[in-house]
Protein: Purine permease
Organism: Massilia eburnea
Amino acid sequence: MNNLLYQVDDRPPPITTALLAAQHMLAALGGIIAVPLVVGAVLKLPADQVVALVNAALLGSGIVTTIQCIGVGRVGIRLPCVMGTSFAFVGAAISVGLEHGVPGILGSSLAGSAIMILGSFFMPQIRKLFPHQVTAVVVTMIGLSLVPVAVDWAAGGKNAGANYGDPTNLGIALFVLATVIALVQFGKGIISAAAVVIGIAIGYAVCLGLGLVNFTAVQKAAVFAVPQPLYFGMTFPVSGILAMALAYVVTIVETTGTFMALGSATNTKMKGKLLCRGVLCDGLGSAFVSVLGAPPVSTFAQNVGVISLTGVASRYVVALTGVFLAAAGLFPVLGAIVVTIPQPVLGGAGLMMFAMIIAAGVQMLSNVEHDKRTGLLIAVSVGCGLAVSERPELLAKLPSFVHEIFGSGISTAAIVAVVLNLVLPDRPVAVHDDEEEDDVPQPMLIPKVG
């Protein structure tokens, strides 16, 4: 039985839609801003250029998110899908940028996006590589990879130094976590659906009272700024294009897994043609944001956790999130205000959201056929994913292309699961095109709301 509060094509009332859209924005904004900040810091860019990267990333992510949700012709998956600058490209971007600067990053991103655009037309075939047991592994690994991010937030952030794990940080995070749990469990209607944003707002108010909010970023932010396309210029180094192309190949795998998780969260049959529209939007969107002056975009897995937790699957809600993100790109002061939210506040809410993805993956794993073959597939793929996720230095002495492919626990688990599914004996017969209609995703663990 479908227990979503709002279905994919539902249109909640305007005020409710705005509140729920803000919830998704809070979940995504930190990740979108982090990528240009990291790249800018490593390349030692001047402040004005870092600001230009951030504004372009927000505006581009917002526009592509709206297109992904609403759809334009054959482009866009038409599901509640948040797009943002992806850490999957950080390694390649830094390696290209150190040699060729930001123009090399953007030119390589534009040229490399052709891989994702072309790959989108083969999604019906790629979809066959993701039967239920493989999808369950990927969904579980998405959650397992995101939880450490929330833990770092709860502790004060990776850059907290001596304050990492400070009792005050942990206390705030636990308070927000308890608040979100209470709102989800005992709240009704919009109170339960908007539990994350309400919990963050309450946590933010507490931090204000304790004097823990730093408004320096707001004071420095411009009120209005229009990102200038080709502000940095573009160059097309062959080595950079190859590095980015490889990153796009890995992103296709990760995006496919995220779309499968999204299909399960929204009770949507994730057929090959639907994947084609979504991945095509990823590719075209990355080309667009490259021209705009930002690193490539991809589907954000953390927002699947918001849907799982709240039961709100309306694509119109997330389309408005895209509008909010674009506004943050045009009005940097808005994004700066959101950035003032202390990381422990985000950590308390994020731990709940990301753990919900793990719960969904565990439920999906419980529905697979329990035999020796499946047990091996799950154990080895999840183990390999955790190995590179928790000990990334494991790959430090291997060639750079190996690190690009297996640097993410999600992509590692997905690739290992796909390979084992193909090579282990007695594997199930592959799904044919005419059987895709019967491939109904298992429902996720979504708490009852309303």
Q: What stands out?
A: Confidence is low (pLDDT under 50) at residues 433-450.
